[in-house]
Amino acid sequence: MTEDTETLRDRIAAELIAARGRTTLLTTVVDEADLVRQHSPLMSPLVWDLAHVANQEELWLLREVGGRTPLHPEIDPLYDAFEHPRAKRPALPLLAPGEARGYGHEVRGRVLDLLERTTFGETQLTDGGFAFGMIAQHEAQHDETMLATHQLRSGLPVLAAAAPAPAPADASSLPVEVLVPGGPFTMGTSTEAWALDNERPAHVVHVPAFYLDTTPVTNSAYAEFIADGGYDDPRWWTPDGWAHRQRAGLTAPLFWRWEGEWVRVSFGVTATIIPNEPVLHVCWYEADAYARWAGRRLPTEAEWEKAARHDPATGRSRRYPWGDDDPSPSLANLGQRHLVPAPAGSYPAGAAPCGARQLVGDVWEWTSSDFLPYPGFTAWPYKEYSEVFFGPEYKVLRGGAFGVSPVACRGTFRNWDYPVRRQIFAGFRTARTAVAEAAR
Ligand code: AVJ
Ligand code: FE
Which of 16, 162, 252, 284 is most exposed, with the fewest beta carbons within 10 Å of its own? Predict the structure, then answer.
């Protein structure tokens, strides 16, 4: 399927404009003081994200693709994520909110002009519109980061959201787990034009038969783990996990509070937890401990991707669990429409061939795997996107959450974070090896 140049241009413009619309919303619903304030040492001030997305857009599109001279080279170091850790960013001489908006507007106007003149594929960077897609995804990723900052922010609710879709009629009769038969499947991609370097190249992986939870683990299931003393029993935790649980005083997911019942704060609103909603804001150590308590384990990254993409009828890997079509509101909970995960079992139309639901959207799902390069990996177009993070200190998350834009989400998309992190929109599901089937 090849797309003509005009269609590609329109799609790029639409993605850039959509990401900017969200950025604008997330940075205009609070006042100037809240834009420059640091709401958590884990996060940048919102005004940093605002100018950082513009700076990356200038670097990659105006300078690298367009060959333009830098607009404001003196500010580059301020917005280089590797020069200054998040906790130190409020002390930098950052652009004020109005200046950051002006810079973003100045860059974007020139980018849209450049887009009109680009014929894709003169260089590897513009092949299939890659650099433009990378920048649209980058801004969308920061929109998710800014959403996490809003969740950490204390104060009144300011973000409007659509009500979650009701759970479908068959949600309570779904099997608790689905079987993914053993055998080879194609992991990663060499053909998805906007896939980032760590998703490449496509390669065959043999995955023994396993069972996977049909849906993400729910609040009520997680509350049973808590009620059963799961946080006080070192048997369920890895040594590192137990040490962290003790040091950090973990007793429940982030944003949960016991008030005679479990309540949670979501974007400034405190409410009783919804039992059948996927659990959110747990770290890898908590997910791993829950799985062990349940007599199960986290899926590996390869298992997750096989469940999400492998079509046993054709033997090929799909772009998404439901097929090759782009996400839509009836397939997955993405794009910051709802600001909560949908009830477990939602989105039957988005189910994978194995029957698992909500693999894409709702909550990021922790896997047991370290963030490592695929065989044949090459850093592209810069080492600081993926390569500098490869290693055992980061765990992989898959699937994307309600806060993720569809442009930054695919069956092959890989996210990663430290196993202690909970401010991200992360949940999980569990797995077990299918012993009898695997032996056959
Ligand atoms: C892929 C979400 C881990 O936020 O650190 C944004 C994405 N990279 N700017 C991050 C990213 C550069 C990245 N994650
Ligand atoms: Fe960034």
Answer: 162
